[in-house]
Amino acid sequence: MADSKAIAQAIRDGRTSLGIEFGSTRIKAVLIDDERNTITTGDYGWQSHLVDGLWSYDVDKIWRGLQSVYADVADRVEADYGLKLTRIGQIGFSAMMHGYLAFDADGELLVPFRTWQNTNTSEAHEKLSELFQYNIPERWSIAHLYQAVLDNEPHIGSVRYFTTLSGYVHWKLTGRKVLGIGDASGMFPIDPNTKTYEQGFIEQFDALPEVAAQPWKLNDLLPEPLVAGTPAGELTPEGAALLDPSGVLQPGTMLAPPEGDAGTGMVATNSVRRRTGNVSAGTSIFATVVLEHKLSKLRPEVDLVTTPAGDLAGMSHANNFTADLNGWVDLFRQFSQLNGRNVDDGTLYGELFRAAIGEDADPDAGGLLAYPFRTGEFLAGLAEGRPLFVRGPEARFSLANFMRAQLFGAFSPVTIGMNVMTEDEGVEIDSLVGHGGIFATPVVAQRILAAAFNTPIRVMTTASEGGAWGMAVLADYLRHADLTLADYLDDVVFAGAESVTEAPRPDDVDGFQRFFARFVKALPVERSAVEHVEIGG
């Protein structure tokens, strides 16, 4: 770690990179120096909400959150180093992938932002997947656009541009309608050879009668995909004022291509080479493996996206992961407070998580079942979700088994797609890296995930840094684009990185497999809950 004088000089010289990522529950900023050391961070919490039955975020909170995390960074730089943050070397924005932000010819938003959480696009998913013989998940941007066409939504004829959240923020700060190729691959399929959209698929899409009747062609609506290391525009005076209303930050900073959270997860875990992979775990969870070749056929359980360098990767994506788990932990927090004990997050999560691998925990969670479905889940065939905890009358109900069931249940949906890749497609994996806040508690989540995937799981010292740090690294890569992204990560960023590996334990693997079999068998219980339990209770 650099000393404070060296960091202060890097700030003065503009030898810094800023990454800002819009996650599902928080917006985070990370400022790093030219040695990739974290200088300071900023944080802003937000939540999606239903608008006319669709999950959305308020647009004003996009900008309020952006300005808040930037102000956090600038204020901490001034407090810690006595410096005004007048310039930054490079900036990059990333965000949760997919979704739908559609604009008219005047740049006005036509409908509220539709997030990746929405599953109202099943008809579009099915028709496009069949047309292309390529999986087009429900949350992809093209599925949202096509569903609006199929539903004859009033706004559809006025669309002149659509993009993702990261692309929207980047556009407003630079004037450039571009997107990092990894994020673009979650809008529409990418050809890994040409590093652009699959033109044959675009022609098929435009030829659909209901699309041909529209006053636009798809190519004219999509942002331009850019590979990592490509300059993606400069911070305009208007963009600088939008990011920093105080007027201290000067325009002219070079921006990296805006990326999705899958790409920043790959970077933060050094998983961009073929046969490497990562598991990015947060509100949602996805396991991504960089492929050596295309899949043999259409596999609905596997998304095909790309690395920020444009190489094809297979992803098993589950919409649901920690939301229900966090709710249970908060319940235990409330109980602790009733007894006069105020427990910090690290201690509370640590105590509960460690119970899941303690001596009192049965390998299969004692017959308990936990379904983490707050929203719909394609992998489980659910249009909607209802968080559910189920036990048989003879199940062994203990705190240890309860927490083990919660963790097993959280990792079960993503296991469905991962099994398709490794068992049905024979995908080879040299290394798999865990990434996200759940891995901050040592050993526990690693050990549970190793059992679920039956493969060693490595956690690096940067695991808790998250996607914002990964985006800052991608911004820094603009200065190193003479190297391939894989070589830059291996030889520059992670050359001395430390990591801890948990190998799968036979008892854990056997226990998870028994739990998973019960989980799949009892899915009709979850479907019944969706049918009979209202969202509000």
TrEMBL record:
Classification via InterPro entries: ATPase_NBD, FGGY_C, FGGY_Carb_Kinase, FGGY_N
Keyword vocabulary terms for this entry: Carbohydrate metabolism, Kinase, Transferase, Xylose metabolism
Origin: domain of life: Bacteria
EC code: 2.7.1.17
Keyword presence, Repeat: no
Carbohydrate kinase FGGY N-terminal domain location: 18-240
Record keyword Transferase present: yes
Top-level EC class as recorded in UniProt: transferase
PANTHER family for this protein: SUGAR KINASE, XYLULOSE KINASE
UniProt name for this protein: Probable sugar kinase
